[in-house]
Design brief:
mainly beta, 4-stranded antiparallel sheet, 8 strands, 0% helix
Length: 94
């Protein structure tokens, strides 16, 4: 298992998807937190877009484990409507 890592970032361009985490075949757990006041959309299977993948509410979060969500080894794409909104990702927490 990889060592835990934390990534904090911002939406670079509102409405345009960006890669929040690169693919990692050893990833087993991920925790995603929307630290902004607007909804964000995430996707492990395609480029993130509104109303696809899964949403994370303003100030919300989601923990995902490989046993339940094996697609978490793929790259994580995220999109938010507003430039500069923030989010954080903890990778391989246990």
């Amino acid at each position: 298992m990889a060592a835990p890592s934390q990534t904090n970032s911002t939406i670079t361009t509102g409405g345009t998807a960006q890669v929040a985490l690169a693919a990692d075949p050893t990833r087993r757990t991920i925790f995603i937190q929307n630290t902004s006041d607007t909804l964000m959309w995430c996707n492990f299977l395609a480029t993130a877009a509104a109303n696809t993948g899964f949403s994370i509410a303003a100030l919300g979060s989601r923990e995902m484990r490989f046993a339940d969500w094996p697609m978490i080894v793929n790259a994580l794409s995220v999109v938010g409507a507003v430039t500069g909104k923030t989010y954080g990702v903890l990778d391989d927490i246990n």
